[in-house]
Amino acid sequence: MPQTEVFFFREPKDDSVPLLQWLGNLPLKVQAKCIGRIDRLGELGHELRRPEADFLRDGIYEVRASYQGVHYRILYFFAGRAVVVLSHGLTKEREVPPREIDLALESVNRRWRLISNGSRSDRSRPMARKRFHSGASQFLYNRHIAGDPRREEEYEEEVINAEIARKIYQLRTKAGLTQQELAERVGTSKSAICRLEDADYEGHSLSMLKRIAEALDKRVEIRFLPAKRLRTA
Which of 3, 8, 131, 138 is the most exposed place for a label (fewest CB within 10 A)? Predict the structure, then answer.
């Protein structure tokens, strides 16, 4: 699968970047979630699906993250097959307001730019020796996370939680099961399966993962690998 380039939309009138302004004001944990989702978008492009992203309408998509009952969304669109433009971010309680989608649509025919980890304004910041799937996610990681061991560890945990949720969702849908049907096989509730498929869920247990695997005719494999702490230059 070709790598997808990720760009930030830039306001032509004042050269501002709405997403960077929004992201900079978020709680630290939410920043880690959003950066992880953006990196996945760079990796998968059009293939990124729920629970991390979803289609809204008229060519506008959303990156999805939640924390303490608050929902955070980043709206984006594709400019060609392998180019994504991040329009702006928003905080919502329920559905994305139509005006926010319209705002993203206004960005479609306007200018955008890629900000990489080589941005001149950020060269004084620590730069992680970590592989990312786009210059945009590398830039954001260096700007908000790199150099702080606690934040680096938190970021890795967010990436793992999202990966587990994605695996459960993919296995269930590939098996052609609804959440209710999988819950009945596992011996739990539909709401429990819904939580497990939430990329922001932090309560995964080995025993529940084994029950889900058995219900889907799979097995859980555990491996111990050498510890690789993120190093900063």
Answer: 131
pLDDT per residue as tens digits for the range 27-49: 999 999 999 999 999 999 999 98
Question: Is the pLDDT assigned to residue 112 strictly greater than 60?
Answer: no
pTM: 0.79
pLDDT digits (tens, 9 = 90+) for 186-205: 999 999 999 999 888 888 89
Pairing label, strands 70-78, 83-92:
antiparallel
151-215: CATH topology is 434 Repressor (Amino-terminal Domain) (1.10.260)
Question: What is the token pair recorded at 230?
Answer: 């993120």
Architecture per CATH, 5-148:
2-Layer Sandwich (3.30)
Instruction: For residue 191, give the nearest of 201, 37, 91, 175 by alpha carbon.
Output: 201
Long-range pairs of 12-20 with CB within 8 A, sequence gap ≥ 24: 12/110, 12/111, 17/115, 18/87, 18/88, 18/89, 19/74, 19/86, 19/87, 19/88, 19/89, 20/115
For the chain, give every domain's residue range.
5-148, 151-215
Equal CATH topology for 5-148 and 151-215: no
Percent of the chain with pLDDT over 70: 87
> How far is residue 197's CA from residue 218's CA, in Å, rounded to a whole number?
17
CA angle 189, 192, 196 (to 5 degrees): 145
Backbone angles phi, psi at 23, to 5 degrees: -65, -35
Mean pLDDT, all residues of the chain: 86
* Cα 161 off chain centre by: 11
